[in-house]
Amino acid sequence: MSIQSNWEKLYREAVQKNFPALQSVPGVILGFHSTIDGLKRVIPEEIERILANDPALEKEVCSRLDTVPAEVRTPADLLVGLASSLQKGKALQLMVREESTHEWIMEHLGYDTIRMGGTSGNMANSLAPLPLPQILAYANPLTREQAELFVDAQNLFVINQDGELQHPHQAWQGEGIYAIHWIFEYPKGLKLKLGDTVLETPRANRFIAAWNPVNNKLQIEANFMEHLPSLLDQFSHFIVSGFHILSETYPDGTTWLEYLRPVARFLRETKKTHSHLRFHYEFASIASSAIRKGIVDHILPTVDSLGLNEVELCAVLRDQGEEELARDIEAHSSMAAVLRGLERLADRTGLRRIQLHDLGYYLTLVDAEFTTGEKCRDGMLFAATLAASRSTVGKVGTEREILAGLDVPLADKAEARMASLAEELGSTDFAQTGIGTKNGRYVVFVPTKIVAKPVLTVGLGDLISSSAFILG
Ligand code: ADP
Fold this sequence. Notes:
The protein is an alpha/beta fold. The chain has helices at 3-23, 44-52, 55-63, 75-88, 99-108, 119-127, 144-147, 168-171, 222-231, 256-273, 289-299, 310-319, 323-330, 335-349, 373-393, 399-404, 414-425, 430-433, 460-471; strands at 28-31, 35-41, 92-95, 113-117, 135-137, 156-159, 165-166, 180-186, 191-194, 197-200, 205-211, 237-240, 278-282, 305-309, 353-358, 361-367, 435-438, 441-447.
């Protein structure tokens, strides 16, 4: 059998096995970040008009071009941040700190559409169409506007004010948008005139300005903390994410560490009293090396499993002084370097499972006592099918739509990648199974499917990691 048809067969079998397997998963908890994304296309004339009406603002923005503000306190900070992202075609995320500036953005730029934002909210909407019995999502404040962004599914819950599980559409309290993460999207070749300078975007990308005063210290809401313990017996998996919302310092003089520690304590204690729960932490792009290191030191020891992409892996390795290894991985020279990177991280943190996703493959390193190689691989294959289907359709849809993900072709380079790992592991059948062993761990590789013209890719990594973790 050719490698191609061998993997197509493994894919079909994994998907067949995992639909019923999902029904026997007791329940999944998703904390601690659901929010509202306000999508806004950048329209140069709109910004040029704002500046024409406000010469002082124009003067300040022009004088600060080529700088990047640490956060957004004033309208000028917002426009300077946007200009910087546009000019480089580089994604940039900044927190909005002043309520008056939030109001200014709302009044002068507004948004085109709102949609679910935040890692937990996105995971909830992507996992709810699957036959999982119950999913508990964290969302605070759960106003009517936030609640309406959750999909209508019988298996999706929040904790209501009485401490009971209830669908967000019934559990919301009050109305209004208290948090909004503006996503300013721009295409390649967009021209923006600022004074005498004309910026032109070298590629399509986005600039995010997040106003989230309730959550930017990652403080878990009191009602959720109080009632969660009595519900934990009904759940089996706890997926934690959203720490990219932390700032290094706050206007009141406090720092991220003051807020990370209580969350770590909460997770540690929950794990101690409910040892049946399996914890997963999903990394996100975090610009601050101090916060990344804090997560490695404080959060990773409290979880069993970690999910991350190749950029995040390199950032974490650099934080640990592994510059050369990070460079090897970035050079895409060999899969052996990627495996070494995961091993280094697992040795250092004691994590029992680490799953890396990259375009074209996923690679997981997992303790042999934690699961079986087949179960791990089949979970990853199911995740890749979901990712292919969601990229094609724009959402996780019906079982039929998910099965259509199987028709998406496998990425090229799969054979070379598997050959490199097979050699590293001294395994003869690795290209057929994707499963090898080393130092008491399984090394599990799956070649994935790539959708040539994806409809939606935001949040794909979250979906891949969460579904593979739950099943594997
Ligand atoms: P996010 O932070 O938005 O969740 P990540 O960068 O963590 O995204 O993960 C994106 C992952 O999605 C990639 O590593 C890749 O595995 C997958 N992916 C991206 N584009 C496609 C595509 N066109 N088809 C299939 N999978 C894709």
